[in-house]
Amino acid sequence: MDSLGADWIGLIRHGESTGNVAREVAESAGDEVVDIPERDPDVPLSARGEEQGRALGRWFAALPDERRPDLVVCSPYRRAIDTARLTVGGHHPRARVDERLRDRELGVLDLLTTRGVALRHPEERARERRLGKFYYRPPGGESWADVALRLRSLLRDLDGRRVLLFGHELQAYLLRYLLECLPEPDLAAFARNTVVPNASVTSWRREDGVWVLEREFETDHLVEQGVEPTASEDQSTRAPEPSAR
Q: Which of 37, 51, 95, 162 is 20 to 30 Å from 88 by CA-CA measure?
């Protein structure tokens, strides 16, 4: 995408959420359903996620003026909003919330673990394997391609030179697809072998009309402050697993 007005785009994945923690517990225990009482948009940060957000805030406060964003755009989900508040609160950059940055909607697969999907919707697991993660759309939900379309729309509407986004794991992958023109098979292979850490920073700068990856999933700002990085995978990016027996 070389028609954007921005010269620099950064993405911060939200800090660890209580949903991330609950999913890891459910997956490890072999449960079928993740015990999350809130709607997905209302899931808050965990105590460790708040600590990560405060570390981001200290990192942001130390940035020189020329490296600070002139526009901040945030997902409407609480975990992203709270991460943004902890990061930029008190510095008053121009900011807005945009629903196009929300996490992927999973439809009938929402709150199901890998085992839960295999047992309750084996036909959907088979469809995902046949179509591939990028184009597979669960009933009532979205495909990665659907999320890419709304993310592409958002990027075209950006009206800042240095733009900082607060969002979700999937968007870190899809921004590589959109900005770097990463082919879909390469994107799928890359996502299969990586996890975007919570509170990590990924950024791109534009050079001669071409977007260049500047930082990839960096967590140095956490480690340097003695804050533990976490790599909790979102359900929206979880790779297919072998069917349960």
A: 37
Residue pLDDT, tens place only, 28-76? 999 999 999 999 999 999 999 999 999 999 999 999 999 999 999 999 9
Q: Label residue 18 exposed, middle or buried (CB < 10 Å: 0-12, 13-18, 19+).
A: middle
**Per-residue pLDDT tens for 162-172?**
999 999 999 99
Check: CB of residue 144 under 8 Å from CB of residue 104: yes
Q: What is the dihedral of CA 161, 74, 150, 172, to 10 degrees?
A: 80
Please tell me the pTM assigned to this model. 0.94
Other C-beta atoms lying within 10 Å of the C-beta of residue 193? 7
- Determine which helix (DSSP H) or strand (DSSP E) holds 215, and give its type and residue range: strand 210-218
pLDDT for 244 equals: 34
Taken in order 126, 128, 129, 131, the sign of the CA dihedral is positive
3-state secondary structure 2-66: CCCCCCEEEEEECCCEHHHHHHHHHHHHCCCECCCCCCHHHCCECHHHHHHHHHHHHHHHCCCHH
Q: Which residue has the tokens 């939900």?
A: 141
